[in-house]
Amino acid sequence: LKCIAVMTSGGDSPGMNAAARAVVRTALYEGVEVWGINNGYKGAIEDDMYKLESRSVGDIIQRGGTFLGTARSPEFKTEEGRKQAMANFKKHGIQGLVIIGGDGSLTGGALLSKLGMPIVGLPGTIDNDVWGTDYTIGADTAANTIVDAINKLRDTASAHRRIILIEVMGRKSGWLAMTTGIAGGAEYVLVPEVKYNIDDMCQELKEAYDRGKRYSIVVVAEGAGSAIEIGKEVGEKTGIDTRVSVLGHIQRGGSPSVEDRIKASMLGEKAALALISGLSNVVFGFDAGKVVSIDLNDAVHNQKTLDPELIRLARVLA
Ligand code: ATP
């Protein structure tokens, strides 16, 4: 292909810039024209796109967020919206598209590919919930942000002998909660993938306090329930001073970690090279430390599961 485009879509994640930068610089290195689409599918429909130069992606590798902007686009879920996007791509001579985003964005990509647009997807989400890849762009940085927050909350929990519940992002996926629960030394991790019993948890928390424990940390994945509601119940049932901290959008921001910068750069290069050489309808990700390609339809039609080893380890170490 002689002209490709790149977009970021859905929730932003740290490292999207590094990935887009790698797509752009690889394309230019190969002598291929490259366009940026602003605000994901919204910009594709509104014809908000422009030709990029090497300098367009300067000074962004260290930044969270995405220089292209991102959005959620209900119009793109209609056939009419997708046809409008296709007409805009055709107008500018765009022959292939790299989409950096989560499950929903890649599902949108699979629909575009049905209309004849060659698509390469890159998993960009802090949730780490894309099937077929161990890694998604931004999850490592988000996990580090959460662990930093847990460390700080531990100090104050200990000073006051409190139970602190920390709600983290992850919608249907408990990956962020489970990994940060283990790394942050939490007593309990509540995730949507594993059934839990609040009464049993309260009983155990109480017994631990009776044995002299000074404080407890409970990490709650947003998909497992509202930490505010669970915290209220825990406070009432244990009689122990309980506080809740909902971390919210702070988890999405910040300068990407080294892992996110390197892996996003590797994926961005692969994505551009694949499209240029005529390979499409794949998602690039990582499996056991190596870049792998996953069929786009497989990636969007399968549900990723939480590694049982993590669940087991969290139980053993608590
Ligand atoms: P994150 O996991 O970080 O939230 P995401 O990519 O899953 O990211 P979504 O809001 O689910 O975020 O999707 C982003 C956009 O992708 C939507 O606003 C919509 O334009 C498009 N999209 C999502 N699902 C579909 C679908 N089933 N059909 C067509 N387009 C879709």
From TrEMBL:
GO molecular function, one term: ATP binding
Residue ranges the record marks as coiled coil: none
Domain of life where this protein originates: Bacteria
Cofactor dependence: Mg(2+)
Chain sites annotated for binding Mg(2+): 103
One Pfam family from the record: PFK
Name used for this protein in its record: ATP-dependent 6-phosphofructokinase
Upper classification of the organism: Bacteria, Bacillati, Bacillota, Negativicutes, Selenomonadales
Gene this protein is translated from: pfkA
